[in-house]
TrEMBL record:
GO terms for molecular function: metalloendopeptidase activity. GO terms for biological process: membrane protein ectodomain proteolysis. This is Peptidase M12B domain-containing protein. It comes from Aphidius gifuensis. Keywords: Signal. It comes from the Eukaryota. InterPro entries: MetalloPept_cat_dom_sf (IPR024079), Peptidase_M12B (IPR001590). Residues 36-258 form the Peptidase M12B domain. Residues 1-22 form the signal peptide. PANTHER family: ADAM A DISINTEGRIN AND METALLOPROTEASE DOMAIN, SOL NARAE, ISOFORM C.
Amino acid sequence: MMLFPSLLAFLFLILVANISDAVPVNTTTSVSELTPVIEVLCVVDYSTYRLHSEGKNPTKVEESMKYYYSAFWKTVDIYFQQLNIKIVLKDVIIARNKFEDNHYLKVNKNRIGTNGLSFDLLNTFGKHLYYNKSLHNHDIAVYITQFDICQDVKANNSCEVKKDVITFKNEICKIKHDISMSHSVAMITDKKNIFTGIRNAVFAIGNLLGISKDGEYGAKKCKSEHGYFMSGNIDFASPYKFQWSKCSINSIKKTLKSLSSSDTLSCLFKKSKKKEINLSKAPLPGQLIPIDDYCEQITSYKSRIYTSYQCTELACRYGDDDESIIKGPAIEGSWCWDQKVNKIITLSQHYY
């Protein structure tokens, strides 16, 4: 649906006014006509397929992965609803073998050493999407991998600087016809099969929307070590792991105002008629991974819950004594208080 520029500007004046600095979100509320909708195409590489297939029936791996990534993107959607932005999952495309990995994205050409991928793969990804018209039914395409994403490469062809996210800032919905490439793309890592990539996905989409990274130009008043969504900090114990910083909130307000007369605005309001994956009945990550297993993955040691009654803080014991403890937030959707309350994250507070 195309909207006239004057109407678009009016809609966004209302939309920006609706973004609150600290108002919890009702995740069951239906999307209004004033809500921008970002349609996501999720592309999962072969390294991630191999991780998810370990110890599973080969015939059920793909179904299991789509279940996992439904929970993944449902959580991303919950976080963006805090900014009055809706995330819609259009499809999950999975590379089931090396041929599919290399045929479509020339992964071998963009490999760095044995465990790395170069930044050039993002360009290859963007060009593939530009030429493959059957994949045009999305606003953003996100490529998920287990490999390190290498920003700088040493002389011996190994990673010197590793990243969890790469994308083109403020390029959502942008198509570069002069170079035959989509710039509305991102590469992220989602390692260990415990939803570590959720914050990477949030950061990537935020970056595509033009939200500045905390601590950098445009967001210098917000410290990256506080661990907000746009901090680039995914540490387990980040104090504000489930929140947007004030800098991010102010940045998205400015971004939405700047879009009031651009083609990007119509892209975010234009709803595709093609089907999407229904996330309303998808589980949350904590409903798929027991907290004991989550602790063990975090500490790389046989671990268990130290305090099970606390919803907002999880303590994982590792080693052979009570002194070796890692504290941090429990995974989204974890059960707490004797399994009576299901945990949902809100913008400013942790209500479960």
